[in-house]
Specification:
The complex is a heterodimer of chains A (312) and B (363). Chain A is built from 13 helices and no strands. Chain A is mostly helical. The longest helix of chain A has 28 residues, at 193-220. Chain B has helices spanning 3-31, 36-49, 53-76, 84-102, 106-135, 139-157, 200-217, 219-229, 231-236, 241-266, 284-294, 299-319, 328-362, and strands at residues 191-192, 195-196. Chain B has a two-stranded antiparallel ribbon with strand order 1-2. The chains are: A mainly alpha (312), B mainly alpha (363). At the A-B interface, α5, α11 and α13 of A face α6, α11 and α13 of B.
């Protein structure tokens, strides 16, 4: 039994498709987690990331359905994510409704809405064309996973450093971090705390929408309401796992994507391990990783604390 | 402002937002080529008007209310438990396993089902409690991630005949179902005016009163609310956030588990027909959570909200016949919850603005 397991793991690790799947999952998580990282730096926690991803995927499908262009569809996806983030931001950081309540409701609403519209409109999608970077793509095992992906994948190589630059090298980023660490002081020094927070959520909506649309065109080419299937929550866990550093967050995305891809590859290679355990594995890994690391890291001091002037 | 004017303002805002949500839903129906009026009519028919339907709706409202009450308790302690779906499933699984393990005569077995259902939910929620207070994992995420794990655990259990799977003869040609609960072990479903509903309705109502009383009038409830309002002040006053927080989570889970047990023993055709099947929870946990949110985490308003949401669910069955996809009811639900979040927030902000204006005038 145990030897079986190790030989299975060995096979999975030496199969190229593991890395290709892993890279797709990691990219999905990374799109969402990068935006959510920015949003959490400003002191907000958005469980509506799941809804933003799903909305992005559905808007992407709609965009392709009406324009037959993947590029336009990706833009649609970003807008789809943005729309959800606007609702989240306005409700929780202008109207002062509880951010978890709003996020949860949005998740349920978008799930219902996407499912409903999917059956009514039934949008068609396709695979995005692959863009192979010469020479690099020939690296064994990793080559195709990192340099032979559908073209929207490469947006990530720009998005992640850009997000880092935005948060740590611009005035906007400084004000954002001030809003996340000490909103009272930020407010006194003239920063509109809730405005910065809203903007950071818009950013999360844009990147998550991109991520959802990317996943649609990279992996499934047909919309289904289970396309995201709780992976938005894993993206949030990746931010926590990474201790609110961008590189740690990316590490979390890769680890959790590994668990997701491991489950898939094992089935693909025809191993008969316990199917239920495999399905639960990514979630168990996520819980386990948070149990080990959650106490060793320091969150933004005002994370998930609403800011209302005069109330502490 | 006078009391009367304030009340009018509240009522007007709530009515306006509910209407706005329904209008938005109708616009979505019209935009996809359906007719909004028959859909709304079907919803009302299916939930209360057609013969036997309000009994059906009451039956669905029971687990929703129980889940919501549990959510109210954990929310009062300032904890965000959003894993009721999983706690309900594990509760139902505990109830099934122990009811067939111990057996016993009818009424006694019902007690066993209820107790172990609650225990199962409490155990599952306590996993999140342990992670929260021992390892510092936010309960928002752990409760949520445990939902998927619980669904897989039940799927596994339903394939093992030493756990939940029915022995060969019992299950006919279906592969993943538990044994069916014997007739004399079920929760009675008396027939009143042609409407049949389980007597757990009374239990759920009693529970709602009890939760409202405990939270408002007992020391334990007071400390719990204190913890929720200001954890630091509560700590200084000697309220252990670990003890109270963990127990609030566990009790919240117990209510969800109890809901699962009630669905198994008294749900009838709405829920698995006295058997545990894959997908048994059928979103009751999620909807119950919404009920608690709409009731703004108070026990008595949750009774009304539970009935309304149960109505949307039972009404959904009638919507299909209008040619509109029945998932529109999910949309209506989501829009309603979102709309109901607006009035309290707007009034809160307006009161602050008025207070500030009054304060500056005096200076």
């Amino acid at each position: 039994m145990l030897i079986d397991f190790f030989s299975a793991v060995g096979d999975v690790l030496s199969s190229e498709s593991t890395y290709i799947n892993g890279a797709l999952f990691a990219a999905l998580l990374a799109f969402a987690a990068t935006g959510e990282w920015v949003a959490e730096k400003s002191g907000t926690l958005n469980i509506s990331v799941e809804a933003m991803l799903l909305s992005g995927a559905f808007a992407g499908a709609l965009g392709y359905h009406f324009t037959d262009s993947v590029a336009v569809a990706i833009v649609f996806g970003a807008i789809g994510g943005l729309l959800i983030s606007i609702v989240q931001a306005e409700m929780s950081h202008r109207l002062t409704a509880d951010q978890f309540v709003v996020g949860l409701t949005l998740n349920i609403l978008v799930f219902g809405l996407a499912g409903f519209l999917d059956r009514e409109i039934d949008p068609q999608a396709t695979f995005a064309s692959k863009l192979e970077i010469p020479i690099l793509v020939d690296i064994p095992l990793f080559g195709e996973a990192l340099f032979g992906e559908p073209w929207p994948f490469y947006l990530l190589y720009g998005l992640v450093p850009f997000s880092w630059w935005l948060v740590f090298r611009t005035r906007w980023g400084l004000e954002l971090r001030a809003a996340g660490e000490n909103p009272q002081s930020a407010d006194v020094s003239g920063i509109d705390v809730n405005r910065r927070r809203r903007q950071s959520i818009y950013y999360a909506g844009l990147t998550s929408g991109l991520g959802g649309a990317f996943f649609l065109f990279a992996r499934l080419a047909a919309f289904d309401d289970s396309i995201i299937g709780g992976r938005g929550f894993i993206a949030i866990a990746a931010v926590i796992f990474g201790g609110w550093t961008l590189w740690g967050t990316m590490g979390g995305c890769i680890l959790f994507a590994g668990a997701l891809s491991f489950q898939l590859s094992l089935q693909g290679l025809g191993y008969e391990l316990n199917a239920e355990l495999l399905q639960a594995l990514p979630f168990l890994v996520t819980i386990g990783a948070m149990a080990i690391f959650a106490k060793r890291v320091r969150p933004p001091a005002a994370l998930a604390r609403p800011f209302i002037r005069g109330l502490k | 402002m006078t009391r009367g004017a304030r009340l009018t303002e509240w009522v007007a805002m709530y009515v306006a937002s509910i209407v706005a949500a329904l209008v938005l839903a109708s616009v979505i129906i019209e935009a996809t080529g359906g007719d909004w009026w028959p859909v709304m009519e079907a919803l009302v028919d299916g939930s209360i008007m057609a013969p036997g339907r309000w009994g059906e709706t009451l039956g669905v409202a029971v687990p929703l209310l129980l889940v919501a009450l549990g959510t109210v308790i954990s929310a009062k302690a300032g904890l965000i438990n959003i894993g009721q779906e999983g706690q309900l499933l594990i509760g139902a699984a505990f109830a099934v396993y122990f009811s067939f393990l111990i057996g016993g005569p009818g009424p006694l077995n019902l007690v066993i089902i209820m107790l172990f259902g609650a225990l199962g939910g409490a155990v599952w929620a306590s996993v999140a409690g342990l992670l929260r207070f021992w390892r510092g994992v936010p309960e928002v995420l752990s409760t949520l991630l445990l939902v998927t794990v619980s669904a897989q655990a039940i799927g596994y259990g339903l394939k093992q005949d030493w756990l939940l799977l029915a022995p060969g003869g019992d299950r006919g040609n279906r592969n993943q179902v538990s044994s069916q609960l014997a007739d004399d072990n079920r929760i009675p479903r008396p027939d009143i005016f042609g409407n049949e509903f389980p007597i757990t309705v009374y239990l759920a109502l009693a529970m709602a009163l009890m939760v409202a009383y405990v939270l408002a009038r007992t020391v334990w409830g007071f400390r719990l609310r204190m913890l929720g309002h200001n954890a630091r002040a509560a700590q200084r006053a000697g309220v252990s956030s670990t003890a109270y927080g963990a127990s609030a989570l566990a009790i919240g889970g117990a209510f969800a588990g109890l809901a699962g047990a009630a669905m198994f023993a008294g749900g009838g055709f709405s829920f698995g027909n006295f058997q545990l099947v894959p997908g048994f929870s059928d979103n009751i946990g999620w909807t119950g959570l919404l009920v608690a949110l709409v009731a703004r985490e108070r026990a008595l308003p949750a009774v009304v909200a539970a009935f309304v949401f149960a109505g949307l669910r039972t009404g959904a069955g009638f919507v299909n016949s209008t040619g509109v996809e029945s998932r529109i009811t999910d949309v209506v639900q989501g829009l309603l919850v979102l709309a109901l979040l607006v009035p309290p927030a707007v009034i809160f902000l307006r009161d602050r603005r008025r207070a500030r204006a009054a304060a500056t005038e005096r200076v």
